[in-house]
Amino acid sequence: MLKKINHDSFGWLVVAFIAKLLLGLYLVYSITGLFPHYNTFYIKAADTFSYLDCIDNLIQYGSYNPFYRMPGVGVVYYFLRQLFDIDLARTLLVMIQIFLDAYACFALSKLIYQIMQNKVAFLITFFLTVSSSYYSLYNVWLMSESICTSTLVLSVYYFYQGINREKNKNSNFLFSGFFLTWAIFCRPIYVPLIALYVLGILYYSFRLKPIQIIKYVFIFLFPFLFFDSLWVYAGYKHTGKFYPLQHSDYEFTKESKEYTEAYITHDWKLSLFKYVQAFGGDIVDWNPDSDISWFNTNKSVKSKLQELPKYAYSKTITLDSLLEVKNNIILINSTKDPKQIDSLSNFIDTKLMRYTEIYKNEKPIHYHLLSRIIIFKKLIVQNATYNLYGKSFSELKLYEKGVKILYLLLYYMYIVGAILSLIFIIKDRKLRQFLPIILVAAYGLAIYPFLRLCEFRYIVPAMPFVLLLCAYTLFSIYNVIFNGKNTLSRP
User: Fold this and answer.
1) Per residue in 257-304, pLDDT tens?
2) Listed residue (95, 196, 213) closest to 152, CA to CA
3) Structural domain of 122
4) Is residue 84 part of a domain?
């Protein structure tokens, strides 16, 4: 039966698209409680404006404003807006995100087949990637996660085609560079992967003539050099400053003030961010389980934390020290007096800046190392279904609770399976074949903890590679059970 399966058939892409579309329809309904119509098949987030409103302003007023995000999402929306109104263009953007996700699932499944030459491995990977809600959930959100995830997967897929196939090397490296550039334009934090890919080309092509290797590197780099030069030119023309990637400040104008509410951050809050990050805390203030919620920074969120962890304090910084800060934050959020707000803001800002420096000096190992490990643990050991429904677990229907528990169990299967895969990969002497996948996954999971950022959606682009590694573990177990051996076999 396995011999009849054509892993190259585009029928798999159709199946993946239909499955992702049905999952998207269900997710929109489960999150919003409303059945999506033909022109409302999307969900807006607090920062959707920074991806799409700048495009609407460009079309209507001729100004890319707010001039902040790189247009990885906006460029698709721009072309859709040439033909359709806002709602329909945003719905079609979601459809494109779903298609790219389906294509990425198909590509990952083909990739593991190419590495292992086994159709069971293809089927396991295809099922895992198509059925997962962890990153597919973002297909219906108007943010950067979906396109970034899919294009990152496709960049790895075409990279493998470039290093492993004799034919079409030029076009494969060009596509790899193009999709990585697209991913970077969605999430600039992935720009260091350019160096990783270049090293990969050098490592896997070392037997070729130097002139050929240089040609492949240039072809790979060309999309980024071309599109980023356009972005740099546009940024310089707009601001008079040099911005090679996403802007470090928001460059909001007075006219765009109504768009800035989600990004207005007072100095005292930035200082609080730095202090909470110093001890390895979560600074997402809309999360009631986050460390920063203990300070009551978000008036609309009631914190679930009764106390901060012990490592939040030092010899000098005590509970009383932070209670003083907390009480002043409560005051600043309850008053409308500008003078009192300025006074309290300056007081909080000064205190927290001093506390952060004290913490660094008194607990240097914790600050430089342990804080990042703590954030990494929080990102991995999480409630992976927290945004699957727009209500609490106790309010869910019985089948909804079942779906939530199922996807939570699947998430931890992905994580455990990916960890175990390292053992199987080394044992099966497949490290060379899987090394690029492992390194991309490791970077995607580790870079945000290194920067002390702890928002769960940040690791979404790394999850397809985690699923692929998990698929390797499941296949290895299957091989032991049904073939009675742990070496690879070809059906």
Assistant:
1) 444 444 444 678 889 999 999 999 999 988 888 999 999 988 888 888
2) 196
3) 2-245+386-483
4) yes
